[in-house]
From TrEMBL:
<keyword id="KW-0801">TPQ</keyword>
<feature type="domain" description="Copper amine oxidase N2-terminal">
    <location>
        <begin position="22"/>
        <end position="108"/>
    </location>
</feature>
<keyword id="KW-0186">Copper</keyword>
<dbReference type="Pfam" id="PF02727">
    <property type="entry name" value="Cu_amine_oxidN2"/>
</dbReference>
<comment type="subunit">
    <text>Homodimer.</text>
</comment>
<keyword id="KW-0560">Oxidoreductase</keyword>
<dbReference type="GO" id="GO:0048038">
    <property type="term" value="F:quinone binding"/>
</dbReference>
<dbReference type="GO" id="GO:0008131">
    <property type="term" value="F:primary methylamine oxidase activity"/>
</dbReference>
<dbReference type="GO" id="GO:0005507">
    <property type="term" value="F:copper ion binding"/>
</dbReference>
<dbReference type="InterPro" id="IPR015802">
    <property type="entry name" value="Cu_amine_oxidase_N3"/>
</dbReference>
<dbReference type="InterPro" id="IPR000269">
    <property type="entry name" value="Cu_amine_oxidase"/>
</dbReference>
<dbReference type="Pfam" id="PF02728">
    <property type="entry name" value="Cu_amine_oxidN3"/>
</dbReference>
<dbReference type="InterPro" id="IPR015798">
    <property type="entry name" value="Cu_amine_oxidase_C"/>
</dbReference>
<keyword id="KW-0732">Signal</keyword>
<feature type="domain" description="Copper amine oxidase N3-terminal">
    <location>
        <begin position="117"/>
        <end position="211"/>
    </location>
</feature>
<protein>
    <recommendedName>
        <fullName>Amine oxidase</fullName>
        <ecNumber>1.4.3.-</ecNumber>
    </recommendedName>
</protein>
<feature type="signal peptide">
    <location>
        <begin position="1"/>
        <end position="21"/>
    </location>
</feature>
Amino acid sequence: MTALFIPLVLILQCCFTATSSHPLDPLTPTEINKARLTIQKSHIGNLPNLTFHFVDTEEPEKAEVLKWLSSSNQKRSIHPRQAKVVARAGGQTHELIVDLATSSVTSDHVHTDHGNPPLTFTELFLASKLPLSHSKFINSISARGLNLSEVSCLPFSIGWYGEEITKRAVKIQCFYRGGSVNVFTRPIEGITMLVDLDLMKITVYTDRFRAPLPKAQGTDFQTPKENSNSAPYNKTKSGFLVSGHKVKWENWVFHVGFNARAGSVISTASVFDSRKKKYRSVLYKGHVSETFVPYMDPTSEWYFRTFMDIGEFGFGRSADSLQPLIDCPENAEYVDGFMAGADGKPQKVERAICIFERYSGDVAMRHTEINVPGKLVRV
Ligand SMILES: *[C@@H]1O[C@H](CO)[C@@H](O)[C@H](O)[C@H]1NC(C)=O
Ligand SMILES: *[C@@H]1O[C@H](CO)[C@@H](O)[C@H](O)[C@H]1NC(C)=O
Ligand SMILES: *[C@@H]1O[C@H](CO)[C@@H](O)[C@H](O)[C@H]1NC(C)=O
């Protein structure tokens, strides 16, 4: 116990003084605002339709971060904070670097190659509402004998099928709620709309066929009310320390970040090597890179459904506040997430991440082995 106690104290001194923020810290709301104001005042600020698609910390080089981590508190230089911003203005995509100390744009690259910036929530929302006032769609719905007030339309990314540089567009598919909140259960098949996102207009409308709607009964998935109360709970003590974005647990230290694209990001994770009496770096940076969901159905209404959930929609952008005792146990600590909206202003996801300790005895996998002759092995 005594032997363990000493490194613990050292760690507390090395990593938990409030003075030094970590170079990989996500942007604070103040920094997000500063990046927005700097860009609005810059050469692209007066171009039409300035929208912010991605705003994140422009990280220092890995070697610099590692040097910062390994130097003592007193010798640590304050890292110049920079933001990287992907913005659209005047119909072009700009990749910008903003120096937050001097409030200046230090780099601007116009992206002309394949690929488009992440979709903003604002444009997805606006696109999904277009059909409801589109006369051809209104006719298609009434021809099916459906009630327009019970229709929800959703924007789907369109995939990429060739060398042409495609316009920024989404396809819209609609669903019939008809008393169910399980929107995806009841697709209104046969109708597809293409929306040009820069024009924010339906440019192609197709109504090819009709198909019966699945029934609404029994499709509800909501948590019964009595289980979803937010009564105060007794938080039990966690066995780790969270200070800003730094986490210390047993012989581990790591940094937890958040951005609109990846959601949770774990970086600079080290474990204390008790033989060498020093920390050993285990992971520089880890997050989910992409989830690619190709539906593999060749019909016109389905072939384009090849979602890139992270690159197109964003895990952080799609994050919702975690509910204590439903999503995370009572010994959890919560970290809020911040990101920029399409207007560049900071948005907060309260309790975006939770950190908790759990015993390793819980079942995490099951394996049944049938390849040992004469035996059925169950683990
Ligand atoms: C700006 O947005 C409007 C409406 O979405 C669109 O009609 C116009 O073409 C856009 N201008 C540019 C330069 O992208
Ligand atoms: C259509 O749906 C709305 C909203 O659910 C409802 O108020 C309205 O009465 C419905 N209209 C018809 C004709 O059923
Ligand atoms: C919290 O602690 C109080 C006092 O010990 C107890 O009365 C209450 O039932 C506890 N609540 C929960 C949710 O465990």
